């Protein structure tokens, strides 16, 4: 069963890396939230294609890396094809029937060196093909984008900063809310000095955030403009809406 083992040695870890990549991608859960809260009604076909392309593109990096490394090392490829070795390429191998069955019983590493060379060649071909495909996709992305290079870089920096600040602030808010509940139950709350200082600075904190507001800032978002004003995220859109309506 060398053939099945060799394919599994390359394919199964690659599949596991792909699934893990999907799970660790924040956009995956944005799509899930979008389908759950809005049934994807506001998600256009082009936006969905771009988003899924981004998710899949990030998720396949690790599987491709694993596959290329496996091919360059050659063990799994050689093991998979060991039962298909031509006996005439081996010295003093007697003629015999059922050649594939007999060849499959040989240790995987005792096959002719050209098989490893084929594996390495295939690995470098995969590297070259993927590199060219990534370059062409990046060119297509920038050609089809309505944003200039600098504004797109700014948008990326904004999203990164917003996510970092949001997570940091959410941690403090959750700690404040938990502290209030614990204090109401016990009559006091045991806080460290640093935590006391953090919560002391939260004078204007919103104790409870309604689910509707959470839904407004959760889900898929693609760049858009309102009256020539850039809107960089759902949180940015929510902030503009609340300011315009004095909410």
Automatic annotation (TrEMBL):
Q: Where in the cell is it found?
A: Membrane
- Topology within the bilayer: Multi-pass membrane protein
Question: Main localization of the protein?
Answer: membrane
Highest taxon in the source lineage = Eukaryota
Q: Which Gene Ontology cellular component annotation is one that this UniProt entry carries? A: membrane
- Which keywords accompany this UniProt record? Ion channel, Ion transport, Membrane, Transmembrane, Transmembrane helix, Transport
For this protein, the parts annotated as crossing the membrane are 6-24, 45-66, 121-140
UniProt keyword Membrane, yes or no: yes
Give a GO biological-process term.
Answer: ATP export
Q: Entry's PANTHER family?
A: CALCIUM HOMEOSTASIS MODULATOR PROTEIN, CALCIUM HOMEOSTASIS MODULATOR PROTEIN 2
Give the family from UniProt: Belongs to the CALHM family.
Q: What is this protein called?
A: Calcium homeostasis modulator 2
What organism is listed for this UniProt entry?
Cirrhinus mrigala (Mrigala)
Q: Kindly list the organism's lineage.
A: Eukaryota, Metazoa, Chordata, Craniata, Vertebrata
């Amino acid at each position: 069963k060398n053939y099945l083992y060799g394919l599994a040695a390359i394919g199964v870890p690659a599949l596991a890396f792909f699934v893990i990549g999907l799970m660790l991608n924040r956009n995956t859960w944005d799509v899930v939230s979008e389908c759950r809260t809005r049934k994807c009604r506001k998600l256009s076909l082009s936006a969905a294609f771009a988003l899924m392309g981004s998710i899949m593109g990030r998720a396949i990096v690790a599987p491709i890396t694993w596959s290329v490394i496996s091919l360059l090392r050659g063990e799994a490829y050689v093991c998979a094809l060991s039962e298909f070795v031509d006996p005439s390429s081996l010295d003093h191998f007697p003629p015999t029937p059922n050649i594939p069955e007999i060849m499959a019983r040989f240790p995987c590493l005792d096959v002719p060196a050209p098989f490893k060379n084929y594996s390495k060649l295939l690995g470098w071909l995969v590297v070259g093909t993927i590199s060219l495909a990534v370059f062409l996709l990046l060119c297509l992305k920038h050609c089809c984008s309505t944003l200039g290079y600098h504004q797109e870089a700014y948008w990326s920096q904004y999203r990164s900063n917003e996510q970092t600040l949001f997570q940091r602030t959410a941690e403090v808010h959750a700690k404040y809310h938990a502290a209030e509940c614990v204090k109401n139950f016990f009559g006091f709350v045991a806080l460290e000095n640093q935590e006391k200082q953090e919560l002391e600075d939260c004078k204007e904190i919103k104790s409870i955030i309604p689910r509707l507001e959470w839904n407004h800032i959760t889900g898929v978002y693609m760049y858009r403009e309102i009256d020539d004003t850039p809107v960089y995220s759902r949180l940015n859109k929510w902030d503009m809406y609340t300011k315009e309506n004095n909410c």
